[in-house]
Amino acid sequence: MLTPGNQPFGPLNLAVRPPVLIPRPETETWATAAARLIAARANASADRLRVLDLCTGSGCIALLVAYTLGKAQVPRPWSITAVDCDPDAVALACENAERQGHALRPASAAHWQAPVGSNGELHVVQADVFDDVAMRAVAQFASEGPGFDVVLCNPPYIAADEWAGLDASVRHWESRRALVGDSADAGANADGLAFYRRLGALFAGPALVRAARGGEVQLFAEVGAGQAGAVERLLAETTGRRTAVWDDEYGHKRVVLLYGAHGRGADYDEE
């Protein structure tokens, strides 16, 4: 029988338990780099910084960004919104937030929030990224009007026909919904990319993200083995924006970046 445990993620010590995805080392590596970029950006402006973490799972990415912003003593007001459709994941993310000293309080039946330091906010929200109404509501959690400055996500990206071939220890701990990026009726069209198509549609619309300078990364999206090229093309064609890819510590193309309106700039050069 699988039992709950603990998992390090950068400087954090997180609770883990079935059926929520266990944070991986490769996710920790890119999320640490992304958090540092976000903190550097926050120090360069006085406007409120608004960060969205989709498919938050254990809350690892959102909480690492919150830790990094606090450690950097960013003077700019900021908020982080962590979203997942799975009630088990939302409960675990809230527990891990409490572990980090964030005193969450219910704002509604599916929304918890906490102050972080003197100028930060953390929101944990249960919502389905494929639900237009829910995502419009999520966009409103960004303080001072709709739209986020940057989105991070480690979405489900395994193709449906690969699920049965995963190691039994993975399938017994982590739910199919946390891993498989196809709907149950995908059939021959299963490729694990459904979430990235949805991301492209959200970024092409007016509500999810604010206008940004061309050199600012607005999306950090983890991808599976061999998917980076397809995800880059999908996002570029859908949004008309420039993309780039970060390799992980094993040399695999791990994260697709999507920039503001006019291509690469300082954010890319720093990495």
What would your notes on this structure say?
The protein has helices at 25-42, 60-71, 87-99, 132-139, 168-173, 176-179, 194-204, 228-239, 266-270; strands spanning 5-9, 12-16, 49-54, 78-84, 105-108, 111-116, 120-126, 150-153, 217-222, 243-247, 253-259. With 271 residues, it is of the alpha/beta class. The strands form two sheets. A nine-stranded mixed beta sheet has the order 5-6-7-4-3-8-9-11-10, with helices on both faces. α1 (25-42) packs across α2 and α7 runs parallel beside α8 (228-239). The longest helix has 18 residues, at 25-42. The radius of gyration is 17 Å and the shape is globular. 47% of the residues are buried.
**How many helices?**
9
> Helices and strands, in N-to-C order?
EEHEHEHEEEHEHHHEHEEH
Strand order of the largest sheet: 5-6-7-4-3-8-9-11-10
Flag low-confidence runs.
262-271
Q: Give the overall pLDDT as a whole number.
A: 87
For the sheet with most strands, the description reads: 9 strands, mixed
CATH architecture: 3-Layer(aba) Sandwich
CATH class: Alpha Beta
Number of spatially distinct domains:
1
Provide the CATH topology.
Rossmann fold
Rg over CA atoms, rounded to whole Å, is 17 Å
The coarse overall form would be: globular
> What is the first-to-last residue Cα distance?
42 Å
- SS content category: alpha/beta
Helix share, percent: 25-40%
In percent, how much strand structure appears in the residues?
A: 15-25%
Question: Care to count the β-strands?
Answer: 11
Which assembly state applies to the chains in this document? single chain
Write out the CATH superfamily name.
Vaccinia Virus protein VP39
